[in-house]
Known about the structure:
GO terms for molecular function: hydrolase activity. This is HAD-IA family hydrolase. By secondary structure, the protein is α/β, with parallel strands linked by helices. It is built from 10 helices and 6 strands.
Amino acid sequence: MSPLPAAVVFDLDGTLADTERDGHRVAFNRAFAAHGIDLFWDIEHYGCLLAVTGGRRRIVADLARRDETDDLAADETALEELAETVHRTKTRIFAEEVRRGAITARPGVRSLVADLVAHRVPVAVATTGTRAWAEPLVERLLGPGTARVTVFGDDVRALKPDPEAYLLALERLGVAAEDAVAVEDAAPGLAAARAAGLATVVVTNHYTRWHDVRGAALVREEFDDPRPLTAVALGEVLTAAQAA
């Protein structure tokens, strides 16, 4: 049997939970309405905006491209300040949804995490989402204290695809990159994990199934289909990556 990973580091958004389409997107739209901003992100357009990492950056990018915001777009400071204000409102709205249990784990996530815990494989989460909503979501999805290490956007200076979040998670775990596995859902996260030296499993979702994920050690559409991911399966992925 292949050795088990020394640790497994999960992304959060889109990986542990399918948060983007019916979670973040809805919260953004409610925040736009609350601030009287004539923006509405439908499912398709929001999918395009996911190429921009970070919610505040997405707001800036979309406001800057609109004809009716030419004056605002010309004032970079004002645009950034507006985006920051709207993003704070969005974060509060999304955190409220998390706390009332509106966001659930993707099928197969809980069983995989339970199997890792049973095999005494440390579980970590590396996300560049803000702690205000990401911390309660991690605890709700995995259970309090299940993640031995958590890295949030507040802890790093650079967002994915920069590897800083993964490097910090590995440092806090005390684990070498070549002995651990990352689990991601999208191309920017894959790039971040690989840049940190991690063999990476990509489990795609509605928005990311068409991403270019070449370089992933394993690509799947679901955690539990065609067969459930397990601690042993991730050990096999790691062994194959080490031998490549």
